[in-house]
Amino acid sequence: MKIRIEGTQNEVTAAARLVAEVLDVHEVSRFYPNRGHSTLGRVYLTVGSPASRRVWAEATRLDRPQRPALPSGESDRDRRGGA
Where are the beta strands (DSSP E) in 1-83? Predict the structure, then answer.
């Protein structure tokens, strides 16, 4: 995965350290200052999921009503009337 972090040099450095606490960081670019008189810039990270642990995520659909849970032993195919 690739991540771009934008902010001041101190903010970008702190954020990159935080990312390294939860993901394996493979590569960090140099700080690229923004054009003009800006104090902001960006750093690009190449990261991967930590091999030592699994990452679990749960999602909730907001565009559809939630279906009731299936009774124990019943499959979604049973609910639809499939064989």
Answer: 2-7, 24-28, 32-33, 41-48
Q: How far apart are CA 72 and CA 66, in angstroms?
A: 18
Residues in the chain: 83
pLDDT on residue 81: 63
Residue with more model confidence, 38 or 51: 38
Q: How far apart are CA 20 and CA 31, in angstroms?
A: 17
Asked if residues 42 and 8 have their Cβ atoms less than 8 Å apart, the reply is no
Is 3 in contact with 45 (CB distance < 8 Å)? yes
Every domain of the chain and the residues it spans:
1-50
Return the closest-CA partner of residue 13 out of 31, 34, 35.
31
The residue to which tokens 């902001």 are assigned? 40
